[in-house]
Amino acid sequence: MPQPESSGTQNVKNVSEVIWISHRGYCLDGATENTRAAFDAAVTLGFRHLETDLRLTRDGHIVLHHDDSLQRTFRSSRKISESTLAELKELRAPAGERLMTLDELLELYSDIQWTFDVKTPRDEDTLIELLSWTKRKNAGDWLNDHVRFLVWSKKTSLHCERIFPKHMRLAREPECYRAGFSTLVGFPLLGGIQKGMTYSVPPHFARQDLFTKRILDAYHRRGARLLAYLPDTEDLAKKAYRLGFDEILTNGPKYF
């Protein structure tokens, strides 16, 4: 049986190496997620790595937005997949922001590291357009140096690896669940943890604390990286930092 272990916050690595990632930009001061205002706020707070979501418009342009529907963020009944870029550019969020495009991301934030969450169901089409966009913009080197991917299906993952063979991707949700559950119950060998892969772990699962040294060490012993997924309090974010998580994806500020 696995032995219980303290969940204390002793430092197990050089914490200066921890990567803080702003989830859709910093929105706690009123900016709309995935907009220039949110990304600017995150950069001002010291983030050098941002996360955003890619979706494809009806006429084949890549825009930055989490949902297909624009109701939650822009108070609009439009859907991205059913609208042209020109139609979407007419919209304003309650604070006045516009929907951002991939072109604008490259123009404004080319020095930032990015995690691209490629949203379903048109994820494969989005990747094909991203490849075409990269060629049009002569942005292959930039993409290689500044971008990694999160995709949601095994089929799309294989597709991504074919057309972007040099790019790193984060572990998909089923891979994270398998690895996390196997590690939690004390059998990490069954988790399929891959060397060099980054896995996401939330603070808790089924009332069990996952931000522990035992969990962290199980991944590190197998050469994997561990991302603290959206710690929702300052104490949890600082705990992940002090334990030595490799990355912290947060809606909040960068504490260190």
How does this model look, in words?
The protein has 256 residues and is α/β, with parallel strands linked by helices. The chain has two domains: 20-163, TIM Barrel, CATH 3.20.20; 171-250, 3-Layer(aba) Sandwich (Rossmann fold), CATH 3.40.50.720. 34% of the residues lie in helices and 18% in strands. The protein is built from ten helices and eleven strands. The chain has helices at residues 36-44, 71-74, 85-89, 102-108, 123-136, 140-146, 154-163, 173-184, 213-220, 234-243, and strands at residues 19-23, 49-56, 62-64, 100-101, 113-118, 147-150, 198-201, 204-205, 208-209, 225-229, 247-250. The strands form two sheets. Strands 1, 2, 3, 4, 5, 6, 7, 10 and 11 form a nine-stranded mixed β-sheet that branches. Strand 2 and strand 3 (62-64) form a beta hairpin. Helix 5 packs parallel to helix 7 (154-163).
List the helices and strands and how they pair.
Elements: E1 19-23, H1 36-44, E2 49-56, E3 62-64, H2 71-74, H3 85-89, E4 100-101, H4 102-108, E5 113-118, H5 123-136, H6 140-146, E6 147-150, H7 154-163, H8 173-184, E7 198-201, E8 204-205, E9 208-209, H9 213-220, E10 225-229, H10 234-243, E11 247-250
Parallel strand pairs: 1-2, 1-11, 2-5, 5-6, 7-10, 10-11
Antiparallel strand pairs: 2-3, 3-4, 8-9
Helix pairs in contact: 5-7
Features of this protein?
alpha/beta; 34% helix; Rossmann fold; disordered N terminus; 256 residues; TIM Barrel
What is the CATH architecture assignment of the largest domain? Answer: Alpha-Beta Barrel
Fraction of residues in H or I helices:
25-40%
CATH class of the largest domain: Alpha Beta
**Strand tally, please?**
11
**Biggest pleated sheet:** 9 strands, mixed
Strand content is: 15-25%
Count of domain modules: 2
For CATH, the homologous superfamily of the largest domain is named as: Phosphatidylinositol (PI) phosphodiesterase
Kindly, what is the distance between the CA atoms of the first and last residues, rounded to a whole number of angstroms? 37 Å
Tell me the series of helices and strands, N- to C-terminal: EHEEHHEHEHHEHHEEEHEHE
